[in-house]
Specification:
By secondary structure, the chain is an alpha+beta fold. It has five helices and nine strands, in the order αβββαββαααββββ. A seven-stranded mixed β-sheet has the order 5-6-7-3-1-4-8. It has a two-stranded parallel ribbon with strand order 2-9. Strand 6 and strand 7 (182-187) form a beta hairpin.
Amino acid sequence: MKLAADQRVHDQKPKSEIELSSLYWYEQRLPAQVGLMASSLKVAGGPKGSFHALYGHRGRQDGFMAARAHSIETGHLYTAIDIRVRLEQPITQFKRSADNIADQEIFPAHLLTTQFAKDLDDRLRVDMHLRRIPSEEQTASCLLDTLAQHPSAVAKLLSYPEFEHIKVLVHLAQTGISSSLLPVATIPEQYLSAIVEAKCRLDPELIVTLPTITDRPKERAGGTPAPEVKPAPRH
């Protein structure tokens, strides 16, 4: 799935802001107020307390189509919540590398130099005791593929000291609403305060409260649990 075009669109947002969308699932009647964390996508293996949302124009549209199909299949209802995330550093469209990653708060796993992707992929696979990919078979998307195939690698990557400043990790993931991978943005728990606004696009009267450091995605304020993710087989 191509993500580069979506990255260029987000790079043009003023005040270093990006826009994401999440989904709140419920039965019969929508409550008057929900916590944003209750709308977090279910992504297996993400960092504890992190928030997951649909990323980019294509990712959001594909996610909404998948949610509609899932709703028809299960009978569960949902609403979409649009989110603004504010970053302190300007967002550039340059490919991320070991030399410039310290200056960026958003890490797009689809927008890396080939060498940086290879180095990180090797490091993750060694640390997680996974089969290493021969260098001649690795491409600039090798890290993106590893994060999608081994969801626990997301938390492992963000645990590295040089990524402790990353507020948004963009990657592909299974979300429980579709059999296809969707572009997802993961916001670690310590950076939930970067979410500055959340509004419900389908039900504008719904009050959406922003997360605090003590919130967790599993707390759904009486709503329907988000669709669970079935882990992909390990390779």
